[in-house]
Write a structure and sequence with these properties.
- The chain is built from nine helices and eight strands.
- It has one domain (about 25-220).
- The protein starts with a helix and ends with a helix.
- The longest helix is centred in the middle third of the chain and has 14 residues, at about 125-135.
- β6 (about 140) and β7 form a beta hairpin.
- The protein is an alpha+beta fold.
- The strands form two sheets. A six-stranded antiparallel sheet has the order 5-1-2-3-4-8.
């Protein structure tokens, strides 16, 4: 049961992008990061308009998106499935970066308001967060490497990309999401985080302490 929970954590809800990105914010504004709980899995998302140079190659693959969500998972299990790969993943193996494109609707409308927390970041924090995400991708000749070349809408996600990070029972999709938030100098610990609920307890505290970021209406005021 624990094995299944750790790996099923890397599944979620697919979306199709249909709308242009919102206007680019100025450097004086706080920028929202979207933390999304998808059952057993937590994603970290940004508005497409906020994508900085390191993530612009990803943004270019989804030009009609309004938001991009990023997650992490085990390569063998995600690409091949099967109980054997599920169990083997817990011993450690190659990871994948999972990207979900969100189009016309806001994340709260797609995943439900109880499953989305917006946290307001300074430009420096946003740069650090995107740096962590960008460095999680495998790069070849200056380009990110798709796990399934030319393929989109893979299972619950819009695309899979090769990662330089490894997946294991001690470094799950939720550990990765905690590390991403921690990289932005947010008060989040990744130590001992394997399941979504362990991270979500910390994320909800961020919602209560981050000025102006707790609701869609409030978050709109920081853009």
């Amino acid at each position: 049961m624990v094995v299944g929970a750790l790996l099923t954590a890397c599944g979620g809800l697919s979306t199709r992008a249909t709308a242009p990105a919102p206007p680019t914010p100025t450097t004086q504004e706080r920028l929202p990061v979207y933390v999304v709980k998808r059952e057993w899995h937590v994603d970290v998302g940004i508005a497409l308009a906020d994508a900085q140079p390191l993530l612009q190659p990803v943004a270019a693959a989804f030009p009609a998106s309004r938001y991009l969500l990023f997650g992490f998972g085990d390569r063998r299990y995600l690409l091949q499935g099967g109980a054997g790969n599920m169990a083997a993943a817990l011993w450690g193996g190659a990871g994948l970066v999972l990207v979900t494109s969100v189009g016309r609707q806001q994340p709260e409308q797609v995943f439900g308001p109880d499953n989305v927390v917006r946290v307001a970041l300074t430009p420096r924090q946003m740069s650090d967060l995107q740096g962590f995400i960008g460095r999680s991708f495998a790069w070849r000749d200056g380009a990110i490497v798709p796990a399934l070349p030319g393929s989109h809408a893979v299972g619950s996600y819009s695309a899979y990309y090769e990662s330089v990070q490894r997946y294991s029972a001690l470094h799950t999709c939720n550990t990765w999401a905690a590390e991403a938030l921690k990289s932005a100098n947010l008060p989040v610990s990744s130590s001992g985080v394997e399941f979504a609920w362990q991270l979500w307890e910390q994320v909800r505290r961020l919602e209560n302490t981050s000025p102006g970021a707790g609701s869609p209406k409030a978050a709109a005021s920081i853009r």
